[in-house]
Design goal:
With 160 residues, the chain is of the alpha+beta class. The chain has 2 domains: 48 residues; 100 residues, Rieske [2Fe-2S] iron-sulphur domain (Rieske Iron-sulfur Protein), CATH 2.102.10. 18% of the residues lie in helices and 30% in strands. The chain is built from 1 helix and 10 strands. The strands form 2 sheets. It has a 6-stranded antiparallel beta sheet, with no helix packed on it. Strand 2 and strand 3 form a beta hairpin. The chain is elongated and about 95 Å long. The model has no long low-confidence stretch (mean pLDDT 91). The protein binds FE2/S2 (inorganic) cluster (FES). FE2/S2 (inorganic) cluster binds next to loops.
Length: 160
């Protein structure tokens, strides 16, 4: 009968060695799991949001009288005879994204039919108010910047 704890001749594993290896493996797995959960616990739980400032590019992209919708930014850049301004494209009713209808010369909401003129004033529909005017300015590089988080009173034009 072989002695307990001593390796068997011929490289065979004893029952004790098998249990020791199993225990070491289980301890390693537990440590790895604890490390993963510890890392997750210590990592900052931050939600990275895109900047509220949208770069609309050079002003000469926009001919006088143009209404340009930036779907990604959710804004309109309008170059009126008085200067540049920007409107939020988000409907003030329930937040749908409005669209510019060039044929009718209005901003229309596809959800419940609100309509606005090119100055954002409500013409029709359930929207409680017009589309807000957003802050517009020129960057040092000469790009039009629109701050989607800052509204300004209507008729605040940017003259370039
Ligand atoms: S969300 Fe625009 S009319 Fe309702």
């Amino acid at each position: 009968m072989p002695e307990e704890g001593k390796p068997k001749p011929g490289g065979e594993t004893t029952r004790r060695e098998a249990f020791v290896k199993l225990g070491v493996g289980a301890a390693c797995a537990a440590c790895a799991g604890a490390a993963v959960f510890g890392f997750e616990f210590l990592s900052p739980n931050v939600l990275y949001e895109p900047s509220a400032v949208a770069n609309a590019g050079k002003p000469d992209r926009y001919p006088v009288g143009s209404v340009t919708q930036d779907l990604k930014a959710g804004i309109y850049v309008i170059h009126g005879p008085e200067g540049f301004y920007s409107l939020s494209a988000v409907c003030t009713h329930l937040g749908c994204l409005t669209v510019w209808n060039a044929d009718l010369g209005i901003v229309a909401c596809p959800c419940h039919g609100s309509k606005f003129n090119e100055h954002g004033e409500k013409i029709d529909g359930p929207a409680p108010r017009g589309l807000p005017w957003l802050r517009v300015w020129l960057s040092d590089e000469g790009d039009l910047l629109v701050d989607r988080s800052t509204t300004v009173p209507a008729k605040q034009y940017l003259r370039t």
